[in-house]
Description:
This protein has helices at residues 4-17, 73-89, 116-119, 123-138, 208-220, 239-252, 255-259, 320-326, 358-363, 413-416, and strands spanning 22-38, 41-48, 51-59, 62-68, 144-163, 168-186, 189-199, 231-237, 280-283, 304-309, 312-313, 334-335, 343-344, 349-351, 367-375, 385-396, 399-412, 420-423, 433-434, 438-446.
Amino acid sequence: MNDPKKLSEYIIREALRLGADDADVMIVNSVNSSVKVRLGRIEELKQANPKSLGIRVFKQKRKALTFTSDFRKDSLRQLIGRTMEMAAVTTPDEFSGLPEREWLGIAPLELPGSDERLANLPTEKKIALAREMEELGMAKDPLIINSDGSSWSDGQTHYVLANSRGFYGEERYSSCSLSLSLVAEKDGVKQSDYWYSTARSLEKLDSVENVAAEAARRTVRKIGSRKPQTQKVPVVFDPIAGRDFLNIIASTVVGDAIYQRRSFLIDKLGQKIGVDGFTVVDDGLLADGLASRRFDDEGLPGRRNVVIENGILKSYLCDCYAARKLKLPPTGSASRGAGSEPSPGTSNFYLEMGPYAPEEIIASVKNGIYLTEVHWVGINYVTGDYSRGAGGIWIEDGKLTYPVQEFTIAGNMNEMLPAIEMIGNDLRFTGSICSPTFKIKELMISGS
Length: 448
């Protein structure tokens, strides 16, 4: 049974025949490939065609989920029967169930589909792109002495969602990415860094020349790093460090984090938590957005949600379960795989641009840190305590001076959000969570 619509209709019909009150089906069929080159030699070459089918059934507020990669009719009939048997012994949950019929729908717009050029790109070309990018990066500076690898990856996905309340949605989309990691050395001290580009189509992907140049620039600028003195200073977050900061917010505005009491933003809906001008959006309809979609993973229309507006917490992101539990409207934010239950998540989640050029923000700091990387987890999502290992560039008299490493940066999100003083105009959508440059008035850094 190759027609996904007929296949999903059969599964739903069979589940209802066996006594289900409701059912839904997710079908995901992908083609993925990846190449990794190091010093011109192929280290990894992969291609896969994973497919999966997930079935959820509901019976008297009980539910069960099963999934398979075997699409044969006899196997599916047996799987539906086992799924119904599982549902009969699970614990009832008053908040479970498919979306209300009036919630279902597909956003009436066109999003980029699957890029056929990716499907037809020869493996030899992918290898050549990775090799060229590595060669270009290593030739950028004599201090670059090694490579940690140059990579290409791409994928095309066909996705289907259907349920017993009349919803049927089908999407085709693609993605591709380039990445390069380099090593530089001076006076026996080595430094490494990387850069990348990701897009939904080959046309939107950055060139190998630009990725190589940025990877080389970021690597070489770490040469001569020092450990800063322990002190409180202004901190300018570059877009990479800013993305990490936004990721903390993304993890604490989702509905399950709220009803499970694992967020510092509990009971703050409608309250001022940040400064004027601090606006965070989750936009599932963003043109060319890596996580854009016309419908979410429960069949609700894709939408644009303003999460924080001028510092005021306006919305939690909810799937249907979280919405019922919190007595809030769903926000079209359900995310799941064929083998998992839906949970609330983000789509294209970003901090809106401010009026300042990054150079203006840096120039406003007499002594402080331009933060370019953070690592190891030191976040307490319940209290908002923030502590990360970090690296960056020291700012002196409004100018970037020398690189700094091996220090910890610490604060609390409840205090950091109101302390944001300047937001940059350099927002670029390089992933599904993005940020422009911004400055926090003061944070503690612990170094030497």
